[in-house]
Amino acid sequence: MRKIILLLAVAVLTMFSCTKKDKESNPLLQEWDTEFKTVPFSKIKSSDYEPAFKKAIQIHNEEIRKIVENKEKANFENTIAALDYSGQLLTRVSKVFFNMTECNTDSELQAVQEKVSPMLSSHEDELMLNEPLFNRIKTVWDNRSKENLDEEQQHLLKKTYDAFIRRGALLSKEKKEELKKINGQLTVLNDKYNKNVLAETKNYKLIVSNKEDLKGLPDWLIESAKETAEEMDGKDKWVFTLDNASCLPFLTYCDNRELRKEIFLARINRANNGNQYDNNKITEQILSLRAKFAEILGYKSFASWQLEERMAKTPGRADSLLRDCLVYAIKSAKTDADNFQLLLSQDHKGAKLEGWDMYYYAEKLKKLRYNFDEEETRPYFEIENVKQGCFNNISRLYGLKFEKLDNIETYAKDVDVYEVKNQENEHVGILYFDPYTRNGKASGAWCDTYQAQYKENGKRKKKNVAPIVTVCFNFAKQKGRTTLTADEAKTVFHEMGHATNEFLSDGTYPSTSATVVPTDLVECASQLAEHWCMQAEVLKTYAKNEAGQIIPQSLVNKIALAESFNQGFMFTELLAAAYLDLKMHSVSSNDTIILQDFEANAMKEINNLSQIPPRYRSTYFTHIFGGGYSAGYYCYIWSEMLDADAFQAWKETGNIFNKKISEKFKTFILAKGGTNDADEQYFRFRGKKPEVKYMLQNRGLVFAASNSGTGGSGSGNSDNEDLENSEQ
């Protein structure tokens, strides 16, 4: 997943004092003399952030004041472009700080976050509700036909004008003050929510002292658990955590059903335990405040407000796609569950299938059906080989090269740095590759930037500001040779797909770079990259065991056969999370929400199986209560529809490295960023609207184009649509 921090902050009336001495001594406020302008991490102390934010806000305020007080008539350059280029110091400070709170946080940074988050929220409100500034923007909008604006400039103008309208520029003074109050409350609640999830995730430890309880677990996981225990002074013990790299393989392989139950329940009840980290009331408050926020702006729900600028456009279209896919997913999941129950009954007579059995018996059935154990693949996916294989794949598709640097400072051990160059050997950007889990690191995987791409001074021929990108994972580090599963290898390709999007971005302005595309489209590039990971032609370049032997074709065939196995279960938990998100953000401010009852009813509405909780439940759904995916988790499914359809463009030529198709995707999708409407960008690449059938076929949920089904068209009449002709 890509963490998107979009700062549109500007004028706050209260000025913050900061002396010249502060600026000279604070590394966050200085010009960095490091190579490629990378972050001098060792020079930055936790105490530097708060004064840096205050000074950066003060400077930003002054930039906005100059725009507002400009005596010249408002035009694109002196208002829209000037606004988009303002606040660069604030953006830089924010990028460093929030990347650290995600990948290397501690109690000091969390304390700073509690102080600066309300400050930034207030700052952004003062921007979006700045009447003189909006009047200048409106003047440019009203006179847009009189300026010779290119397509990108027209799009930025519309995006800027719409953003101010959508944040309350036309509201009365009283309503504006009400919005400010709500936004301030939401900022505090969102930070508290995420802090609670991190605490619940990192605080839990499953301590095993009986070696018999390790039966079924792979050696690498036992070794990793032993190392974790030793770090805690737990001699002769093994410790398992809720990090995916520990928890999910434990659920998949541990023969001890009671221990699977314990860690499973801990996992799905994070921040739902009635203690100081409980998120039930916080979530209910957030949902109510978001609903009120949307209603003040004239929208039926927060989902309606949020989706207006995304590819789905309306909650109805997103809901239609989810429900149409759920028909296939749940039908398949029920078949999977019946098969799992048969295996469970052989091991535990009279026992009923539960959630803690799903991963375990999915793996058992896969072994029986395909004679395939995913652990067989692990020796062939050594992390450095996977990384290099991914780099080579990107090079073949788009011409980028990755050269390791040893002279660039990082924020933690095991973080590698690469210079990215193009085919002409010119500098394109910098990549931080952060592979392993650590205590101060959020769970999951993501891509973000320390510096996004744009052109200096808004001129196409001016110097390009090169992106500085980070990709973060939570793999379990093993002694000696760290190996991944095939699925974890895909995660590397996924996040590097995001990074590639950043490196190939060719936007003129900060707000038209790859960083600010709609989330429906932003996951397309990353999920598309996964398609190459398991292609035989690609595997042979990097999937090698310790002896250097390439993964055998027989095992590749097994991977291919097992690729669509258990998709009912896996797709259902993803769709259930997306449906829960959309449902939660469709409430009104007058609705009384009892969170756990609300979630249970939502699952009943889609006839979900009790053994399949949503991939993220409401109390630890950080994508939507801390990331950029509120009312938008459906975007992963929408993007999957796009990436499956896009990959067909290569497949139809018979060459998955077809240079013409790669160049088209680079030109119309990767390079374009936020320079145009996302639907139009995709249409220019593909020459048609995307079709959902390829996604369903990839997941093995339909096997022929003649199967009846949906296109997710949003019409609500999916039963009458033919899958061959349906489109989104």
CATH topology assignment of the largest domain: Neurolysin, domain 3
Strand content: 5-15%
The number of distinct β-strands equals 9
N- to C-terminal distance? 23 Å
CATH class of the largest domain: Mainly Alpha
Low-confidence stretches: 2-19, 704-728
Short characterization:
The protein has 728 residues and is of the alpha+beta class. The protein has helices spanning 20-25, 46-68, 76-85, 88-103, 107-128, 131-142, 151-166, 173-203, 219-231, 244-253, 257-268, 280-296, 302-307, 315-347, 355-370, 383-398, 486-503, 519-533, 536-542, 553-562, 567-584, 595-605, 622-625, 635-651, 659-670, 678-686, 693-698, and strands at residues 206-208, 238-240, 401-405, 416-421, 427-436, 446-451, 454-455, 464-465, 468-475. It folds into 4 domains: 20-170, Neurolysin, domain 3 (Orthogonal Bundle), CATH 1.10.1370.40; 189-196 and 286-350 and 566-728, Neurolysin, domain 3 (Orthogonal Bundle); 204-268, no CATH class; 372-552, Neurolysin, domain 3, CATH 1.10.1370.
Report what the structure shows.
With 728 residues, the chain is of the alpha+beta class. It folds into 4 domains: 20-170, Neurolysin, domain 3, CATH 1.10.1370.40; 189-196 and 286-350 and 566-728, Neurolysin, domain 3 (Orthogonal Bundle), CATH 1.10.1370.10; 204-268, no CATH class; 372-552, Neurolysin, domain 3. It is 53% helix and 6% strand. The strands form 3 sheets. The chain has a 5-stranded mixed β-sheet, with helices on both faces. The protein has a two-stranded antiparallel ribbon with strand order 1-2. α16 (383-398) packs across α19 and α21 crosses α22. The radius of gyration is 25 Å and the shape is globular. It starts with 19 loop residues before the first helix and ends in a 30-residue tail after the last helix. The model is unreliable at 2-19 and 704-728 (pLDDT under 50).
